[in-house]
Amino acid sequence: MKRWLGKAETTLGNHSDRLNAINIFPVADGDTGTNLYLTVRAAAHAADAVVEGGAAPTSASATAQSHHAAPDPSLHDVGAVLARAGQVAMEQARGNSGTLFAVFLCAAAEPLAGHTRISSPLLAAALNRAQIRAWSALSDPVPGTMLSVMEAAARAAAAVDSAHDGDDSNQTLGLALDAAVEAALAAVVRTEEQLDALQAAHVVDAGGVGMLLILDCLRSAVLGEELQSELLDGLHGYDVQDPHIHVGMPRDEGVEVMCTISLSPLDAAMMRQRLDEMGDSVIMSQVGGGADEAGLYRWRVHVHVLDADLAVALIRSLGEPTDISVSELAVPRDPEAPAATVAATVDAAVGPASAAETRNPDGYAR
Length: 366
What we know:
The protein has helices at residues 2-21, 32-53, 78-91, 95-112, 120-137, 146-163, 170-194, 196-201, 206-223, 265-278, 308-318, 339-348; strands spanning 255-263, 280-286, 297-305, 322-328. By secondary structure, the protein is an alpha+beta fold. Helix 5 packs parallel to helix 7.
């Protein structure tokens, strides 16, 4: 898991500019590559902290543990390490793509809990749980996005598992991973014909390509093989060196609002309904485990709205949010900025958890 997420962080950092260049759906704001990179980076660093610290920390300060402490059994629990990485990714998720990946990671950890290694049956179960959770997190899920790529990978892994009668050998695991990546690639190619905006621009979906890269990193880390350098050859829009495609498109009005909040199931359902009426790209997914002593569950909330004040007022009427961020969808990004520079800019833009104080001029907010 540590190798996978570390490899995915590096790969998305290398590809973030090209992913940004073809990012035109659901908003042509050119930040999918950056959002995925920063979210995966958060997950990778969390996995590092778990492994190096000797236990799954509950806060940043808890990671500073002695390296001479007794080994923690959870270090051998694939699901526990991945769950912690997913929780941190969820808390620090950026944009639609980052939030959906964090949902994917948290859900994938559940079938792996208590297991010390990945097998074909477990991979199939994890990918299936993850794609179902990601589809259900969105109020209005759309085929032709990274959701379709997740689903295709899950179906392919399940087919291999079924064909080999649940064999848990490393050989069958390799076949399942190969099949998942191959199916993900085919799903990426199909995205262009599934969405009118992509077809008109003659590009594939940026989030889908990012998910494909993440899955190939998983394959590479588990099997000890190199990434498939030819994987992206011929993808429409990906090998174009022209300026970013989204730059010449109509500017989207409105803002992206994100936060974390504790809600009862009833209030969560009410918030989703109200946000659906108010805006679009609504994503709501639970963070962490079950309910607290008051019966409340932690939720990560994401929405695109025209009026940030109305959205924040609604959120505050139902609970006390933390990590609120508000970023302008129409603010132009610098297509020449490398991922490392963008990441540094985002880290420097951290402010108090109030909507008014997180409207950052560069369009990114924590």
